Amino acid sequence: MKKQKSEDEVVHLRRKIGLLPAVSFIIGTVVGSGIFVTPKGVLMNSGSVGLSLLVWALCGVLSLFGALCYAELGTAFTKSGGHYTYLLETLGPLPAFLQLWVDVFFSGPASTSYVALAFGRYVVEPFFAPCAAPTGLIKLVSVLGVTIVVAVNCLSVTMASRTQVMLSFTKTVALVLIIVTGITELAKGKTELIQDSFDVKLLTLDKLPLAFYNGLYAYSGWANLNFVTEEVINPNRNIPLAIIFSMVAVTVFYVLVNVAYYTMMSPAELLMSDAVAVTYSNRALPALALVIPILVALSCFGTLNGGFFLSPRMLFVGAREGHSPQLFSMIHIRRRTPLPAVLLQYPLVVLMLTYGELYQLITFTSFVGWFFIALTTLGMLIHRYRFPLHPRPFKVPLAIGVTFTVVCFFIVGLSLYSDPWNTGKSCAFTLTGVPVYYLIVYRFRLPDGLKHICNYCTMHLQILLEVTKQETQTY
């Protein structure tokens, strides 16, 4: 009994995520604002209904290929941290640090902020329809939603996990309602809005990568379970199963939801709507016109919860490896949550909420995100070649890994041509991490006075937050 009590008191992240919570975290972070926001971006850049549906299907297949690659990586390397850990293990510390740098200070807060903005929009707009909702109020509600999510993830891993399961069920109900009403309309013969669906007169090749970016954004989140590998029960079994089941289900849902949209909305009407699901529900489900926006808002809230649960784990692992301040590698002594890493995300997201336009944020962050995903799967292929005997409980077919990597680099390359301004800014921000790495991480060259200040601040914040380093190895 004494030994058991001692083990329970050891401070470390527990394995509490089984198969159902794992599936819920993937579906809960993938199915968020994307399917309710980005249909406009996909249609706008693909030029036709038929091609937009094809883009949705291909994005689902591509995301499944990437998810299978990450299933191999998640079983081959048992550390949490996702992209960061795999880049560190396969390509070395500099690419890993740049991924951490971009995710913590740029793409992570940006992606969370546009999910939060979508949450705020779907909460506020029904009260002002048909007029435009005040932007200030939307942002205020967005900040409130982010605050609640941060509180949940600081208080308890179990609470965050159960919240995610509940919200994943809620968003599935929202998708099923949209799909069933759309299929019902098709059965009644309402197909005039999808006739001549492959008219490619408006298609331009320079915009097609942006259509894929918007579609891939809606599928983003399939790699998030790999951020918490050390907290998954039996990861060799549950990670591949959760990834395969989740991504097949999400792809089917997404294609059918977009078909449903086009049964009630013309392409021109869809392009004019900033809240597609609200417009759809007002026409297809007038009796439930207020219910659908609530379900969509809860869906976005679930994505926020999943993001704040998973993304700070990368910062936690990075600090444990010495690539960020040691404070962020600490865990609350009673709640067993990576409290400092979660709290750091909060002011960054609130600051990013004041940034700009929703679709600019998607393009702005997608380039960096997919570039590092492509590097990660390239690292997987290189590692498989260099270390063929390394244990790999789940091994993806080589053709899938090569296809996914090549397509990712191809899309990233085309984006430089399609939107050089935003992708150029993304590249510039990424490269700012190089001098930081060599000046602070590679060789710790801070002046002694600044080191003393950092140590002093770390000690007092550790006392204030009641956190300490984990006391046992979990990988």
TrEMBL record:
Q: What is this protein called?
A: Cystine/glutamate transporter
Keyword Cytoplasm recorded:
no
An example Pfam family from this entry, by short name, is AA_permease_2
Organism from which the protein derives: Channa argus (Northern snakehead)
A single GO molecular function, which one?
L-amino acid transmembrane transporter activity
PANTHER family per record: AMINO ACID TRANSPORTER, CYSTINE_GLUTAMATE TRANSPORTER
InterPro entries assigned: AA/rel_permease1 (IPR002293), AminoAcid_Transporter (IPR050598)
Instruction: Give the transmembrane region(s).
Output: 20-37, 49-71, 83-102, 140-160, 166-187, 241-264, 284-310, 337-355, 361-382, 394-417, 423-442
* Cellular-component GO terms for this entry: membrane
The record's subcellular locations are:
Membrane
Query: Any keyword Transmembrane helix?
Result: yes
Q: Which UniProt keywords apply?
A: Membrane, Transmembrane, Transmembrane helix
Q: Could you name the domain of life of the organism this protein comes from? A: Eukaryota
| Predominant localisation class | membrane
Membrane topology, as annotated: Multi-pass membrane protein
